Amino acid sequence: MKIKIVVISALTAAALIASPTSSYAAGDSAYKTAVESWKAANQAAKQSYKVAVDSYKAGKATFANAKKAINDQFKIDADALRASTKAAVDAATTSDAKKAAKAAGKSAMDTLIASRNSAIAALTPAPSKPAKPVASPKPSKSS
């Protein structure tokens, strides 16, 4: 009888001790899995953001280079137009001829400015800056 009571007590104690431990281990495993998936999701969001930023920088640089090329060509054309207008004004002998040369130069400059502005407007606009990813809250251990 004594042995029977000792065996029952030992089995009861083992069952009480083993039950919380196994449920704790299962809960700890679920928590670890949740943390790993959280880390993977945040890492994927960071990687996606990095790719978007690289694309943004490349698009912005392409736009800036194209705009610079248009403006450089405009400067060359405007300088040439100013020189030819000055030469035409200097060559004119009457004040009416000088006024006409200046008006023609101004008209040509307005046309040149309009063509530069339309070329810039025709460019693909620079992309908008990507938004930083918001990290999701870390999973908590449930007791």
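^ that was protein a. below is b, sequence first then the tokens
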Amino acid sequence: MSELYQSDYSTPGYLVQAALRGAISQGVDPKSLLKKSGIDPQILNNPHDRIESSQFAFLLRNLWLVLKDEYLGFGPRPSLPGTFATMCQCILPCHNLLHAITVYSKVLLLLPLKLSKMMRPTSNLTLAHLMTLTIF
């Protein structure tokens, strides 16, 4: 793997390892998932090796499919595939960042996630609120 062309379009092995942590914690075999994604499992032993970004994207897609979770196993509960896309569709018509954040927080309240009290929409949403938003 170390002979892979190292360009701006490659992903370091340590990010591959990090992406796999949630799946591993749920009992998924990382080597078979890497093979299915076209990635040499030796990347697990060499965090400084790199893979093509397209391979990493394919790995993430496979993780979403295997786990049925857009949070890749890192959230308090799974986020069903399509949640992020739906959220994006909801905020597309927003005219500014404040409006987008307000809509985003209202939609999150409809989803089965553990939300911080700071996620409750308020009429005076400020940058300080934005900095403290969390879904974990």
